[in-house]
Structure formats: C-alpha cells, structure tokens
Design brief:
By secondary structure, the protein is an alpha/beta fold. Helices cover about 25% and strands about 25% of the residues. Strands 3, 4, 5, 10, 11, 18 and 19 form a 7-stranded mixed beta sheet that branches. Strands 14-13-12-15-16-17 form a 6-stranded parallel beta sheet, with helices on both faces. Helix 4 packs across helix 5. It is globular and about 55 Å long. The N and C termini lie close together (about 10 Å). The structure holds zinc ion (2 copies).
Length: about 350
Amino acid sequence: MKALVLKEFRQFALEDFPVPAIQADEVLVRVRACGICGSDVHGMDGSSGRRIPPIVMGHEAAGTIAEIGSEVTGWKKGDRVTFDSTVSCGVCWYCRRGEINLCDNRRVLGVSCGEYRRHGAFAEFVAVPQRILYRIPTNITYEQAAMVEAVSVAVHAVERTPLTLNASVAVIGTGMIGLLVVQVLRARGCGEIIAVDLDDGKLKLASRFGATQTVKVHADDLQKGTLRFTTGVDAAFEVVGLPATVKMAIDSVRKGGSVTLVGNLKPQVELPLQAVVTRELTLIGTCGSAGEYPACLDLIASGKVNVTEFISATPPLAEGAQWFERLYAGEKGLMKVLLKP
Ligand SMILES: [Zn+2]
Ligand SMILES: [Zn+2]
C-alpha cells in the first residue's frame, strides 16, 4: 500500500509500505479521509518528542472495513466506520470504568514516542481493534466523519461541566475547538453564550453557530494580562491555555461557578488562588473523549453541529507533504486539512 511516511523531522515520502497485519480482535480499515491534527503539525519537527521517525502519522480518520480478524463480531467488510484516535487497552482500571481517555496503556494512532510506535492512517490501510470502532451514519460523508474527534473533545468538555437548562456560559477562544464548544453548548440548551476571541472572523462564525454575544479582545491586553472580563456567567470554557485567558475565564464566572479548562498551550499558569477559594469556584480539567463518538456522529448527522465549515481542503495523500508545510507555516484561514489516500 501507499503511505505518507515521516522519514526525518519535517521530511515526508509517499512510499510503498507493508499493509498492517491484523490481530484476532482487529479490523483492517481502508482509509478514505484522515485529518491533519495540530499535534501532527507540531510533532513533525521533533519538538513534542511524540513523532519520532519513521512514522506514519494520522489519527482522525474514517473509511470502510476491508478485512476482519477471527474474533471480531458484529462488523462486516464494507461497513463505513470511524474510530477513536486512541487505542485504549480495554482491561485497565480506568478502561473498566469507561474512562478510556485515561487508560494506563493508551496508544495514540500515528504516534511514536520512544515507549511505542503505532502507525496511523495517512495510508491506504490502518489496523484498529474492534473496541474503538464506530459506525458512520449513512447521511454523513467520510470527511465529516473524520471530524468526529474534534467534536468529541468539545462534547466531553461540555459533559464534564455542571450545566443547568438555560445556563449562561462564556467560551474564551474560538478556534475550531472553541467554535465546536459553542455549537455543543447551544445543543445542550444553554441560554446566554458569550464568545471571546481576538479575531473578528472567528467571532462572526461564533455568532452564526449560536453565540448570543461576542467580545473582541486585543492582543496587547492579552500579552500584558490586563484583560478585564467580568460578567458572572455560570460556567466558562477556557479553550486557549495561556495565563491571561485562564485568568479571564476565572474572572468571568459567578460565585459558585465552574471553569472548564480545555486549552493547554502553556504547561504552567499562575492561579488567582483566593478568587477560586473564596468564591467557591470549581476548576475542571478535560482531555480527549471517553466514548462520546456515537452522540457526536448523531450531532453531525442531524446538523446540530456543523463540521463542514472547518474543512479547508481535501487533497490527495500524495500532496500531504506540502499541506503539512502550509499548516506548519501557520497560513491564515487554514483550519482542517483532510488527506485522501
Ligand atoms: Zn488530533
Ligand atoms: Zn486501559
């Protein structure tokens, strides 16, 4: 089969690669679309230590089943599927509680980090265990299905947050994940949804996706940490991960409110400890998703969550290297690029 192989840091080759052998509990998926994730773009230069060459990256994919392992039940060749980006072990303490995103033995598809190397879906075929497979609704495309991982991050964040009907919320940072959080909050029955960002275009999209109010902040304030944003919402979602925006999220909630932390650009931020303690705030970390894919696929299928808006291009796998470079350069306006093997 053909695969897009990261040969050296920032150096790709489209080459012949062995079709992965499947275990008894695995299926072989013929990949139809696979998204380039930010973690792939930042990983390809070696800075994250999680894409050590040679590796076939790619963990946001959809396709059809081409082959079935001897112990697989309930699936057949030709079924349209997507799968978790992470292979959870299914047997550890966390997996048995359904907290598969916290699995002790998790292996992300398309990652090589020294501890393991698991080839991913920038290839014609990828092998995945049955326990992470999900059926794609008939009315959505492979491209839409490949966006499910991003939707699941937003859904998981919202699911972890205590929200009553008609709750007021703020979403700090409206990149793709922030915009998905806005859409999921609307579907979740929130009342006031305030979107906050630096970028007018993204705020405009936020309004279209259900934000009832937008707040534009300025880069200077962000840098100086002089942002003031105090509204007293029930819950804030921080989808950036910088000191100033974390502070802003904490400032924006009412006494007894909650702040859900999704962004993690910086490994460490300063915490306004007394504000959190004396106002009895709840801080919630959230990472990935834990089996929310079926709900996410339904949200896409029913049109309650729009993912098509985020798909910037769907080039063939052969053009992968140049699209990686364009994303690496931070080309403005590029959101999700899906490669088609
Ligand atoms: Zn990803
Ligand atoms: Zn596990």
